[in-house]
Amino acid sequence: MLEIREQTRLPLGKLLRICRLSIAHRLLRSFVTVAIIALAIAFLASTLTAARLGLAARDEAVRETRDFSAYSRFLTALQAWSGPAAALDWMASAPDDAATAANLQEWGGGESAGAFRLQAAEARQVMNWFETLPPGSRVLLAENRSGIELLDWLAEPKNRKRFATRLAGMPSAKLPIPTERLNALLDGWLGFRAWLGEMTAGRNRRLEALAQNFAPRKPEQALIEAAASGESERIFADVEANGLAFSPDERRAIAREAVFEAQLAVALAWTREPAIRAGWNAEFQEDFSPARVLESSAGSPQRLRWIKERLGEKSAGFNEKEFSDVGEQFQRRREAFEAGKSLSTRYGTQAGIDTRTGWLIGVSFLVCVVGIANAMLMSVLERFKEIATMKCLGARNETIGFLFIFESLAMGLLGGALGIAGAVLFAVLPGLWIHGDRLLRAFPFGGLAEVADLGLAAGLILSGVAAIYPAMVASRMAPLEAMRVD
Q1: Of 81, 368, 373, 475, which one has the greatest count of Cβ atoms within 10 A?
Q2: What is the DSSP letter of 312?
Q3: Can you give the residue ranges of every domain in the chain?
């Protein structure tokens, strides 16, 4: 009686050893396959890495500009609001922190602030979106109304219906928020607008009390004097007691920038001296401007000596080191503002991939899959007798398929790692060259780790998908047919 035994199951260790030997014996083809995967992953990873680095540099530049403009925001905060539009702008941009909550409580809007903050943000989105439309579209949709007036007009049901009908005929004009949210905003607009008016009146009353508290000086003058002697907290305590709170970080930035503004005013006054104005162009062949004199003299002993000599009797009060330090700080602030503007324009708000780059990555992935599949099919053709021998010795179909899939996955993992390493290297070095210290201060280690994970996953997925068909061909091969192949 014929006894049919169950096919032998090879241990995992032996299967992995067979895959390793197969890759080693076909080293050239394995190298080509790994290179194909590495190039595809490198393209993806370099694109995402450059975007992450750019966003990190942008965020750091924005943080710097926010710190450097802290004193300007303080001066703006001391100005009375002219109406609900100013209150809306503040509500939409104010940070969600304890200082904002304290301000709202003082101005009479604390109880309703939580419900109205989202409405303020959505209202500002709609107003900004409407301003981006072509003039003809704005006229057609709302008779060229804008800002608060636009939302007042849309609060009327008949106007809102007319707006919706005309907007439906403009496929290119897409609302920035869902239609349901817009309707909810407009339904409660009149109540929200009244609340903004009450808050504006409450804030302006508090500012009048604040001005009277510091009279005859202005609050900003008192702050500069106190900050120069390290007593700015006393001024901020008085300001907060009169209904204008700032976070601890904001206080430190305001005090620092207040001192710098006072130093800058003194330095610019030196540059405007008639003797400096008259001789600058002749001496240095440069057009005169106070900012240029200040920046170009920073760290330049020659120019500092020339300024001191030109001041003559007034030079006794001129301190070269202080003037140079102010020039360096002024230059740093100017560069930070320029960088923040240019990086925000270039990188926007998200580290995404534009349509054109997305198509290129998709094509590179398709080429990668085809290349891997072709290499694996060639490997199958070269190993006909090996496959037949293994089947004759009892190897299962799934064992043969596993060998080819695992071999492809191993090369995919190696190619993905090489692609990520190359992409990070060639993206980080130019990034450091372009962004310098700004990128080092905010290096996105977490973002690059996500890119690495994505690259490895993509390498495994591409190689696994590409190996499915070659593995099916190998596993379904009849042993006798394979043995007849020369």
Answers
A1: 368
A2: G
A3: 12-64+352-483, 79-217, 257-347
